[in-house]
Amino acid sequence: MNGLEIDPFIAALPKVELHVHIEGTLTPALRWKLAHRNNIPLPYKTYEELLDSYKVTYNHRREVNGDNGAPTFLEAYFAGCQVLCTEEDFYELAMEYLEKAQSMNVRYTEPFFDTQAHTRRGIPAEAVLNGYLRAQRDGAVKYRVRSNWIFCFLRDESLEDGLEAYRAALPWARTSDGQGKGLFHAVGLASNEYNRPPMLFEEAFLLAKKDGLHVTMHCDVDQKDAVDHVHESIFQVCAGKGAQRIDHGLNALDREDLIPGLKSRGIGLTLCPHAYHRRQATETLFPKIRKLWDEGVKFCINSDDPTYMHNVWIDGNMMKAYHFCGFSKADMATIVKNAVEMSWADEETKGEILAELKGLVEAEK
Ligand code: ADE
Ligand code: ZN
Description:
Layout: H1 8-12, E1 15-17, H2 28-37, H3 47-53, H4 62-65, H5 73-81, H6 87-103, E2 106-109, E3 112-113, H7 116-119, H8 125-142, E4 146-147, E5 149-154, H9 159-169, E6 184-190, H10 202-210, E7 214-219, H11 226-236, E8 245-248, H12 258-265, E9 268-271, H13 273-277, H14 282-294, E10 299-301, H15 314-324, H16 329-342, H17 347-364
Helix pairs in contact: 6-8, 11-12, 16-17
Bound molecules: adenine and zinc ion (ZN).
């Protein structure tokens, strides 16, 4: 599906990932292993059948596209989540991701996670949070990949449910009172956006801001009301101040006030080109990304849900942008710099990555 060799320059770039759902990194191999370890039945008799199930083109959203008999992406993704049961499972998932991140020269990452997809299956939130916390600490030492995580509200669940999940998770946050365990430092949204605009969760965003957390907003591409959701994210959420980042947000190109809004408010987009390339032709998609660049919109390149998206990770996504947008090596370095600047890493981490990037760019001259 990718069909592109990763250029050595792209491979060598020190990377920052700001848009990856941790459960979207669950490999078929780990899924198979955990299903057996936890006695979770899978609807596949053999490992090969499980692998084959990833080869379908998912229905983007049944509400938007109608039923073509294929599962939606979210159905496949939540089916994968079923095998995650114990603290050790969440730890292994995160450690595998951090190991993979290290192999791609990712130096710093802000993975999305949620507890609601797991607590509604009867898994205690502590198992999720402690597993990720342990991996955050061990991964920084073992793989030298630092991470600050992002708690997501499942937007197709109620605000009340989300608030309850948030309150339960708060002791694991890095709150401004310095009391938390330091796993996550931001909140965002995940799951099905259909008829679930960001403003439904305004109370939760205000609470998170009061607790000293950052706020980012998922605005999926070509959803019903996508343009309105981007508008809310720029101009309405957080008492009109807007979100600090927008995840995806490609439809900002579709209404004239949105690009100026992104720029004047300094809101960057976390783009995931391969996720869109699954559904948009090369000639349609990459000129849009190029237009954002030419308009001066800040963005970085990320992976979203790599194991459910043909195993295309951040390096494959960067390669697609490099190849299909006609970006130069200097442009790709700027995209990494954007990611550093859009991140909420500490200044020391940012400085180290920027220094490494500068060294690489100078060696290329
Ligand atoms: N949760 C995990 N991956 C997601 C995606 N790509 N869109 C919406 N919610 C998600
Ligand atoms: Zn996403």
